[in-house]
Structure formats: C-alpha cells, structure tokens
Amino acid sequence: MARKHATIDEETEINVTPMLDVVFIMLIFFIVTTSFVRETGIDVRRPDAQTATSQDRGNILIAISDAGEIWMHKKKIELVDVRGMVESAVKETPESSAIIVADTASQSGVLIDLMDQVRLGGVARISIAARAK
Description:
- A hairpin with a 5-residue loop joins strand 2 and strand 3 (70-72).
- The radius of gyration is 26 Å and the shape is elongated.
- The longest helix has 17 residues, at 17-33.
- It is an alpha/beta fold.
- Helix content is 33%, strand content 17%.
- It has helices at residues 17-33, 79-92, 108-120; strands spanning 48-49, 60-64, 70-72, 75-77, 98-102, 126-128, 131-132.
- The chain has a domain at 48-132: Nucleotidyltransferase, domain 5, CATH 3.30.420.
- A five-stranded mixed β-sheet has the order 4-3-2-5-6, with helices on one face.
C-alpha cells in the first residue's frame, strides 16, 4: 500500500475570514457604545468652591460667557433655542444630564433662565461646574 506524502511545493493557507468578521463586529460594538464629549466652544473662568465634588460627565454641556452669551456645541445660541436642543438630546439619550459651565463674571439671572429652559427640555439632573479650592 503506497502512501502519498505531501510535497514541499504545496502551500498551506490559513482562512482569515472568521478573524476579520470578529474584528469588524468588535469595531461596530465600540463605535456604537462610545459616547463623545461635546464641547461648549468657549473657555470660561469657573468659580472656585470648597464643596466642589467630581461628578459623572453629563452628555449636555452648556456654557455661559462673561457677557451672558450662551454656547452649546461650539455655537452661540439664544436662550429660546436651548429647550429645543435639550429635547433633541433627550431623544438620543433619555437619561440625559446637563452641566452648565458659567463664567464667574456672568449674571445669575442668565443662569436661572438657562436652568429653567433645560428643565423644560426634559432634564432634571443639572450640575453647575466649579473648580475645587
């Protein structure tokens, strides 16, 4: 009985298709589960607070400049536009929370009006950013 021996000329191949499938599935998983930090668009001087504590990041970030301008998504917006933008963010992420970054020179009335608009937009958890002393 004659045995057939493999010749040196034969090449063996490794099928990488299953590995590529797994890599693409992992890539899709990480893209879907990643939350991107949206910036306000301006730098503000946050007030100092002795009781400031670190909080989880909020997915809605709104800034108030020293001149009372409201910034969101790197654009200056009007107070009347805040509610609609917050409502659309809540549609994307129902458990949204907001962080308001108010400049030390901004007026408290603007902050209160902004907080009202955010609450009317459907967000109950609102934090005000401060630096720890």
